[in-house]
Structures are given as structure tokens and as C-alpha cells.
Amino acid sequence: MTLEPVITAMRTDLESRLRVDLLEDGYLEPSYDSYCFANVPETVRRELGVVDGTTRALPEDVLADVDNSYERVFVVLVDGFGLELWKRHREDHPLLERIEERGTVTPLTSIYPSETAAALTTFHTGRLPTSHGVLGWEVYDPADDASYEAFSTTVTAGDESTDYELQDVFVGDPIYPALEAAGVDCRHVVPFAETYDGATCHSYGTVDGPGHGLEGLEEAVEEAFTAAADPAYLFAYLPQVDTVAHAYGTTSDPYREAVRETFDALDRALSGLGDTAREDTLVLLTADHGHVDTDPDRNVDLERFDDVMAALERHGTGEPVRYAGSPRNVHLHLREPEESRDDIRETLEDALEAQVITREEALECGLFGRGEQSQTFRRRLGDLVVCHRELSVWYGSDRPKLELVGMHGGLHPDEMLVPFAAVDLEAVC
After folding, report:
1. What is the CATH number of the domain that holds 118?
2. d(CA 419, CA 10)
3. Is the pTM value of this prediction over 0.85?
4. Which domain range does residue 344 map to?
5. Which of 12, 46, 200, 417 has the most crowded CB, counting CB atoms within 10 A?
6. Is residue 2 pLDDT above 80, yes or no?
């Protein structure tokens, strides 16, 4: 669906139209063809003069209030900081206020599922989930007879001998080697010790310990800017807000503190750059998804549904295939889908306030995107996909996930709508 643009600093008009055109029964669908997070990679490439042509870019009006061309694009991705959270906290932080005053903030939809593993794989490859095949934090692939975490590749069930590197988990290549070949210097400021092929890693935080601190962020940003040769694509990943939202929810004091600390650190990093680094640089600030505060006391344990558990496919160990997708995007792989699917769907629809979508319906409506469908995607797509309106739905044998408060992955507007802010670096410092 293509929407006509109307431009203001915070584009509330567009947000309203996205809600009107894409919201149905409380569930907001991805706008894959226009204002969608999936279209950020090609937008960056277009701005740097490297047009891929095989993927979609955002409508040009998202950059209407900035210069026509830049030698450097700096994308800052604040994990989990959806549009509703931006609006809630924009008056609490000077950086957000300056961005709204001096740039443009365009609402986008996330992809489905609205979660980090799928969305960041889209961000780093330019491919939709139908192509790259990452459909949630927990990847279940019948070809491996294993469930494993998408980013850590830690096996959580099934064949424990499964041993993957990160780039073995998805189909396709990162966008960075092609950018590098086109003469674009790609640099990633991340709280990890390594990053995707084709990009230089500038680490910050406690990369070898638990959690993702902000220590060293300013130095890493300065180091990346100083080392970069024009034209350059710089990227910073900030997961701290998302981590705290999971544990405490988005209305908690720890969450408000995490937002303040994150944007204070980012503000210092941007303001600390020298005049030369600031010149000819476009800053794009966005998020991969938002959050819904669930209720751990009411979150749904699928293991209390005996008929559901009996119908699940089995690993070679004889254990049911539980872990596929995430608590807001559950993929049920069934042993005999033609015989049990309708009954299981009816059971869950009667018991839960949730959408229970068949794989055929998901394919027909393009829930995970349209176009190329990889064999990996088709293997990993569940026979049923369960998306609750506002709660988590998962397995009691993985109790910690049911106890998380802030969650995402589904189609609630608060997790589906994200900001895309564009501002000249010199203007915001």
C-alpha cells in the first residue's frame, strides 16, 4: 500500500493514516511496500549513491528536510525504542527535542515478526523474512532437528551437535561486502567483539561479559568517525533500553533511567565529534520495534493445553518441538497438520484473545513479506502462528520468558510502529 506524504517535523498525520489503513481488529500490519523498517537498508544505499535495485527504499519524503546528498550516513538503532516510547520520552531528553525541531521524524511499521532477530537480519541483509528465513529469536529448522537462538546459535532443544556461526543462520549475504566493493567504508559501533563481513567493528561496553553497558560508546563513535574514509556508512547499535524493558516494563523507573542514560551517552558522543567529522553527515535514528508491557501473572503457558502439546512435532529425542519463534510470535509445528490443525486452532482461539494464523494464510497475506520465498523460510514457518493481542504465549519449561514484562514480536501498534528520524549532524549538535 502506498500512502501520499504530508510533511511535518513529527509526522503525526502519517501515523494516523498508517493506523487507519493498516490496523484491523487491534492488529497493525507491516507496510512492506512503503513506510517500513525493511526499506531502511536501500534508503541508506540510495543516499550514498549505491543503488541495489532489487529491494525497496523508503519514500523520498522521509529525507525531505535534509540536504540532497551526504558523504557519510550515520544510522543509530536504539533497540526496542518504538514510536510510542519516543513520544512518551521526547520532552525528557534534549537530543530528542532537537531532532524533532531540526529534522523530520517519520513513523514506520516494523516487519513481522516485530522482533530483533528477524528485523536486524533484514536490516543487515536487505532481505525480508520470507527470504532470509529468520522468523524469531528461537529458530527451529527441521533440517537440523534443533531449536537454537538466532544470534548466539546456542542450541535450546533437539540435536545438540548443531553448530552454526551467525551468518549460517540466515539465507543471503550482508549488504556490507557489496558496499565495500562499491567504495563505501562501513563501520559498526556495537557492544560485541565482532560484526558482519564487510564492516569494521568498533566495540564498546562489556563485550566479553554479561549485559551490554554503555561504557566506551563515545570513544568508539569518535574512533569510527576518525577512521572512516568517505563515502562512509556508519552504524551504532544500542540495545540497553530493550534489555531493561524486558525485565521491568516500559513504565518502570529502571526503564526511564535506561532511556536517560542511553540518550545522554549518544548526545555526548555526537557533541564530542570534531567539526570535520560533523560535516556532510546525515544522522538517521530509528528502532527495530517497540514494546508491549505484558502481565507475567496472566501470560499464557502453552503446556497447560494437553491437546496442543500432543499435536506438536517431535525432535529425534522424542521431545515435542516447543521453541520456535517467540512469545509474541509462536510457531507451532504439528505432527499431522492436516488432521490436527483446525482443532488446535479452535482450541487456542476459544481460550485466548489471539490471532491464530495458518501457514497458508500467512503466505497469502504476505505476513512475512512478499516475493522470493527461500526453502529455509518454508521449512521454518509453522503450521500455525499464534499472535496474542497483548500477552506472551510460550512454554512453562522456558519459564524465564513468561516472566518478562516488556515484550515484542506481535502486531500490536505499540510494537509495530517505530520512528525514523533524519537530521543533519551539524544541526543537532
Report:
1. 3.40.720.10
2. 9
3. yes
4. 135-165+295-403
5. 417
6. no
